[in-house]
């Protein structure tokens, strides 16, 4: 079951769901709009290595916006910190943003029960596109879970600003186990 807009508002009010800052005007019939934060990251090398930490370059979006370029992966973040110990969040790009040619969160929309923090957004434009800090970039839906809950305690807990991949931490465990 998916939470309706009124139920999202009720869950925020009674503490079952945390959205900070929260504005009821950003609530949709069955989702909540999240906004793009002011910081973007890009990877600083031509080749990204899944088994190592990769250097990044930080970009600050000023009041004139920032032009995203095709062929580049940008890591953005939500203004809002979102989390719940009861509901499963899924984040997708807004259709209005998709119609501008921007892919948002295509490969990793699923959040975990117990994650609390700003969401890192994977942004890939089809054409050069000017984006602005604070623009509505995505929407999060919340699903009711059934069964026992094992809360998220992973490597991105409490995220603030965009987070580069920490896949290399998982790869280190696989490599250690293979030895």
UniProtKB/TrEMBL annotation:
InterPro entries linked to this entry: dCTP_deaminase, dUTPase-like_sf, dUTPase_trimeric
* SUPFAM superfamilies registered for this protein in UniProt: dUTPase-like
Single GO term (MF): dCTP deaminase activity
| One biological process term in Gene Ontology | nucleobase-containing small molecule interconversion
- Superkingdom of this entry's organism? Bacteria
Q: Which Gene3D superfamilies match?
A: 2.70.40.10
Per UniProt, the keywords (alphabetical) are: Hydrolase, Nucleotide metabolism
Protein name (record): dCTP deaminase
